[in-house]
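Notes to self after the call with IL:
- keep both proteins in one doc
- input above output, always
- annotate only the second one for now

Protein 1:
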Amino acid sequence: MRAAGGRIEEVFGAKLRDFTTVGIGGAAERMVFPRSLQEIQEILRSERQHGREVRFLGAGSNLLVNDGGIRGTVMCLKKNMGKMIFSPGGAVVAEGGTMLPRFSVLCALSGLSGAEELAGIPGTVGGAISMNAGAYGRSIGELAEWVEIVDMDGRLVRLDSRDIHFGYREANFPMRGIISRVAFRLAFGNSDESFDRIRIYNEKRRATQPWGARTFGSTFRNPRGGEKAARLLDQAGMKGAREGDALFSEKHANFMINAGQASAAEAMRLIDRARQTVRATAGVELALEVKLWGVFDA
């Protein structure tokens, strides 16, 4: 497969545990790392023509990959597509592979406020938009003006944010594809104040979450009605609960940690155990925030 700039960057048999924040998962049949919109389009058109499945990977947080790996192609923008453009009036356009901490810091440096809460999220702009990631009362969908998606046929579509239903940790798009760029509208602010807020949020994370550990992020979504998944798990005695090298953090019960060489099978056993225990103790059905790739797909 050729692109205008030469050979498309690809790896066969890449170990997905090296591309996920929890460090679990088997190999991908093929991984591609496009460098441009044109390469994204070429890859998707070729894979559609040959009937091959394509999955999209951001920074690999909130993802559990089957131990046996997955067939098809995994497309990742994080490596080569993280550019940002700042325009007058508080407009910022970021490529889908832009990391959220970098996005937040560069906005603060530019005197723009509103993205400070996102600074501690270890994800990409594209991945965050796809699930409406957020923290401390801020969701990324609130900031978006438009989203560009390359659909599975390689067509570029620009969607107004009003055409996307952003909900709690979810975003419903009218088509499937990969998010190539997002435009944001931020407020003018003070850089020093923005960095103070980033520092405060990150200190809160360090105090309440297993900072630096290999983890998905949150394992379960908070149930409707204001209840917290972490509190339900704590009350059910799941803090420190373990299956092999997969365990729930003693610091935050909703964070599962890979404490060594945890397998996806161990992680799933612990997830199932947690759900059953919370169901029995609180009568609440916990929904996964983590996405499952491989034999777990529903």
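Protein 2 (the one to annotate):
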Amino acid sequence: MRKPATFPRHLAADPRQFASVRRIILAEGQEAGIETLAFSTGGGLDFWVTVGRLMDIATLSWRGVQLGWQSPAGLRRPDTGPADRERRFSNAFGGFLNTTGFDHIRQPADGRPLHGSAPFTPARLIAYGEDWDAAVPMLFCEGEAICWAHGGLGYRLHRRIEAPIGGNSLSLRDRVTVIGAEPAPIMALYHFNLGYPMIEGSTIELDGERLAGPLSAPEHAMVPASLHPATSAQASCSVHGKAATVAFHWNTVELPWLQLWRDLRAGAGVMSIEPCSIGRCDDGRNAPSPLLEPGSSRVFAIDVDVAD
């Protein structure tokens, strides 16, 4: 991660000349009404946070080139697509980050839909803006989403995203709390998605060990998910591509696994980097996750940086 650039603020009428967070409400088609925050760090990194979709990251561009996977679903809510509860995740799948959980991850099982009930839940925006007076000037947003059903499991997600002004990185900090009357597991899989030009010629490394690549698109079939244990206290997964290097860093106490998945068929063009909280059994089902009492929380932290 490079040192953030500094700016001659006295030469600009407004500091947003250099970096900003702007609130946007999308207006067209199935994306209409989705609340979005447009981050521009001034250091070459720009991204959108979609408040209306669990405060996930919809776009991520580096020096004007889009790296996050953009799908035909756009940034819609899953209830605007085909009515299939088990596959509702697929109805709105797309963007740089889709957060999944917290009652379930991976394939449908035991009445739980693909990747759980949390994806694309609208959040409540608490704060956003530019903090030029911080020790490290920072762009930020903070919000909360409630994933709950009476008689079912309940969760509160508190999320804060920060990006240094003039920098090339962002940080995501989540606190997931069990709410309601019933004990519940807290599972999480962070579905980071990269598209062209990151899919062509890229290699994927976990803590310096190559897991895949160089990739060549298109491929003739979808590649099934593979699961890899993190071997260090702080995991680092780097995707080295012709357009950029995107690196993901996270604490393995809460996210001890990395799952990889890709669909590089013509017309698809997505590869996914997926830090996750639990492994899989031999039959493909999720490994057990302990039940936590109401009021209990788990904290997840992931940093992303981009470089040439």
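Annotation: The chain has a mean pLDDT of 91. The chain has one domain: 21-307.
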